[in-house]
Specification:
This protein is mainly alpha-helical and 947 residues long. Helices cover 54% and strands 5% of the residues. Strand 1 (223-226) and strand 2 (229-232) form a beta hairpin.
Amino acid sequence: MICSLHQKVFSRKDAKAQSRSLSFAPWRLCVVNAIASLVILFAFAVSGRSAEQTSFAELQKSYGEQTRQVLGQYCLDCHSTAKAEGELDLERFATLADVRRDPKAWQKVAEMLDNGEMPPEDSEQPTETERKQLRSWIESYLHAEALANAGDPGPIVLRRLSNAEYNYTIQDLTGVDSLDPTREFPVDGAAGEGFTNTGSAQGMSPSLVQKYLDAAKQVAEHAVLLPDGIRFSPHTSRRDHTDELLARIQAFYRQFTEDGGGSSVDLQGIKFDTNQGGLLPVEKYLTATLAEREAITSGTKTISDVATERALSPRYLDRLWQALVGASTDNSLLLDALRNKWRRASTEDAPALAAEVVAAQKALWKFNPVGQIGREAGPKSWMEPATLESLPDELRATLPESPEQAESMMRQFRELFPAALCYAKIVPVDEVVTLTLFHRDDDHLQRLMLDEDQVAELERLWDELYYVSQEPLQLVVALEQITQFATQDRQDLVPQFAALKQPIEQRAEKFRQRLARTEAAHLDAVVTLADRAWRRKVAEGEQHRLRELYQSLRSSDLSHEEAIRLTLARILASPAFLYRLEQPGEGELPTQVTSTELASRLSYFLWSSLPDDELRHTAEVGELHKEATLLEQTRRMLDDSRTRRLAIQFACQWLHVRNFDQEAEKNEKLYPEFADLRDDMYEETVRFFEDMFRNDGSILSMLDADHTFVNEALAKHYGIPWSNPNPKRERGTNLASSLTLRVEIEDQWRRVAGAKASGRGGLLGMATILASQSGASRTSPILRGNWVYETLLGERLPRPPAGVPVLPDEPPEGLTARQLIEQHSSVEACARCHLKIDPFGFALEQYDAIGRRRATPVDTTTKLIEGQSIDGIDGLKDYLLNDRRDDVVRQFCRKLLGYSLGREVLLSDRPLLDTMMSDLEKNGYRFSAVVKAIVLSDQFRKIRGIE
């Protein structure tokens, strides 16, 4: 028999609540337990089929005896096969079998009944009993249909990467965050639950195909060919790639050295100072030995411990320590003097000791112009030991008279304290004409500071610099240019340069041979990249075709580099890259997607991008289908910074504020500050949701959070007190004033608690929401109220009647914005909808069009359509949290489910929505609970069979 829950008479409000929340619990209370179990197990057991058939048999009976008669009397005048107004034909549903072929039509009927759209007011109206019986039958049918098809993965739709997904995928694939290849693409359409990642909204056209090909070529231009493969750069020119490598080598040097030691340079009359850099940071190391002397001596700390704590080289710190604590000798008077002072010194004496060492360094070393190295009669190296004769008299007086002994002492001191560890500039700047393109001098750095791995890293960087810049080939060009210069102006130099020609050309020829040998490594790297780009193992046949494409391009007289880039573009323009291709299983029943397909589903859900190495490896070894592993990967990914994308693509898109920072506009005369604030407003919303997702916050914080994220400009806009941050990070520090907020400093942004005191906290107090749902010149209670009604509560309004007057941008003189709206809403044709939405907007009228609290209080008291009175943002929050919590939570679940699946939520998803809501309630509404329910669901892990 039909469940008594669906037979009882209930009000429209009850019907709407039931439509929104088809909970399993009351169903089980009303249906015999055995039958309920069989209904739930219908998809998995033959016995369930009989229970389902019995249930639908009862529905068929009541449909024929009651429901069809009501439809015939009150609905078919407009919704017959002949008329089908609103594209709704109810006459075609002669039997329940006909009804079951189109459940979406009955969802539409239920919505129209709930909104009071059907029957129209000028038509014959059913009695209240008839209306409730009809609505009850529809709800019973929809519930049974949902259970019968629970877990359906949904239709198979070819899903193309959205513009955002394409950009994120390219950025993660290349490691270059600045790439934005879709910036000139058409804007993605939205469908399903309103998201751009919905497959049914993603069309393809010849012009879009061309754009994808052009974008792939542009991305390929960022590839950098290396000795052992490829990587990607933010830039596209060889000069920029060379500068990047120069900067990386200099950054490597900077880890172990410090700036300083500048010298004056005169380039043909142009004089300037250079910052030498690459110096030994003497004071840092001496300070460490003095501050930690007792700990090291006692064994409390090791040299390695101290080096790690202070970001120093353990290799050099150990060598310096041994020299300072070692025994004095007659052969090392310079070091002995330092030892004696060090033993009596404290940490405060470190600068003075370091100054003495630096003074000795300057006396014991001399520097030569790098641009002259290699010339006939020129210097042999950049940094050379000073001769005994060139030393200052005061230093020479401290040395033994024997030159041999003096040289030995100086050598020991120099070995421990070289004036510079490396030539940090790399590119010579001390000569206009030079054959030295890059000067490397880092022997002292390697000897004193680096371990084997660091030496290998430095060698690799230098090798890449020579390879990418093609320095041996560039040197040939430089020699030709210098020879031409000398022929015209310095004939005396021509023989010197002529003698260099043969060795330079021989080196260039060896480099050309190396370029030829490394071509295979580049092709291998491109083919390997296809594995990641296509998010699966590339079959041998596909690899072979990629190699054939490269060879055919070379046969067309294209250079190796051009052919590599076009092969790479082919990979990035392939359907395997542009589409998230999945293979349905054999037969009609749903089957599990493959591990690699599941990995893609998970990564595009949480990161809007391709799987990272760990997720992909987990999939390839067959572990991802295990629930524990799937949840472990989900937790790991939620804790990743890429979860920010979920905040942007899901939360901001759902709330209709995505791209607020680029698109929101206001009247510049009335709100001149808005243009400078909109980026900060948007950032607040993104950070709020990123924090919720990554830290497993409660989804109810969308309404009642007592924290938000601000920088100084936004804090001022909100009236939140702001002071200069304490140098130390503060977490949860209780400060004296109740209006002084606790802060957690992150760059220029702070997570502030106590936000409610300033009228903030949660969505309703965010400037993005308040400003986006306002006009350019004034607030709009209608827009704000409709946003609450539809976006947060998931309700739907009927279309407005024809001829509704447009409200002016500015209220007429003598009227407030609220009075203008109330006057407009009093029109009979408009009142029905405005009574539902306007009160929500009136409650937020204390905030102006850019989300700023008005200085003068305004009337924010209002009465909801149910008759309940609320006042202001706090009253609205209380109403949503207490009276409408289930509606808000269900709407969040519905939107997140639709986003995760890339399709609209189906009737068959209702049981899953019930599970999501139940799990949220059991787990304190933590975000992880709803994500867990989704990723473990059949909808997420399965695909329909071939029909």
